[in-house]
């Protein structure tokens, strides 16, 4: 009978780590993005990313441009944008696009902007520095 409280306490201590799986991710590194017929795709810890270059935008990716998060309740990642040889392409998360994200541990990389209608966060610099996290 003395074994049951011991097992219960141990299960309670470890259950949070079993059921809570926080994934830390960022925008894909420009070198990992594939371009096939103006369709750009990549995969990283947050999932699959995809974007299509619109008319007038073409060429290979030259650099990371920005990441944008809308300050809705909850926070939602909008896009990761990349400079092309001619123009820009926006990449969007596939299956995890509507997940709530957090940037509270990475505030130094994100700047807050307000327009007349909404607030958003923007990250510029290296794609890997635009970190965010979400629960899996």
Secondary structure topology:
Blueprint: H1 3-19, E1 22-25, E2 34-36, E3 39-44, E4 47-52, E5 58-70, E6 76-93, E7 111-114, E8 119-123, E9 132-135
Antiparallel strand pairs: 1-9, 2-3, 3-4, 4-6, 5-6, 5-8, 7-8
Structure description:
This protein is mainly beta. The protein has one domain. It is about 10% helix and about 45% strand. The chain has 1 helix and 9 strands. A 7-stranded antiparallel beta sheet has the order 2-3-4-6-5-8-7, with no helix packed on it. Strand 7 and strand 8 (about 120-125) form a beta hairpin. It is globular and about 40 Å long. Residues about 5-20 have low confidence and may be disordered.
* Widest sheet, order of strands: 2-3-4-6-5-8-7
Backbone structural class: mainly beta
Task: Quickly count the helices.
Answer: 1
> Mean of residue pLDDT?
86
Quantity of strands, as a count: 9
Beta content comes to over 45%
Q: Estimate the global geometry from the Cα principal axes.
A: globular
Major beta sheet, specifics?
A: 7 strands, antiparallel
Q: Topology as H/E string?
A: HEEEEEEEEE
How many structural units, i.e. domains? 1
- Percent in helix: 10-25%
This entry's quaternary arrangement is single chain
Distance between the termini: 37 Å
Which value, in Å, is the CA radius of gyration? Answer: 19 Å
Low-confidence sequence ranges: 5-19
């Amino acid at each position: 009978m003395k074994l049951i409280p011991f097992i219960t306490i141990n299960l309670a201590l470890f259950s949070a780590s079993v059921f809570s799986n926080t994934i830390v991710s960022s925008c894909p590194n420009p070198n990992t993005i594939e371009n096939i017929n103006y369709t750009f795709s990549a995969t990283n810890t947050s999932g699959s990313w995809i974007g299509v270059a619109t008319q007038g935008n073409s060429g290979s990716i030259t650099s990371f441009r920005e990441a944008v998060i809308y300050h809705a309740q909850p926070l939602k990642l909008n896009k990761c944008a990349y400079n092309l040889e001619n123009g820009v392409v926006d990449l969007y998360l596939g299956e995890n696009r509507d997940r709530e994200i957090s940037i509270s541990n990475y505030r130094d990389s994100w700047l807050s902007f307000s327009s007349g209608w909404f607030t958003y966060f923007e990250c510029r610099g290296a794609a890997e520095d635009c970190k965010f996290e979400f629960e899996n």
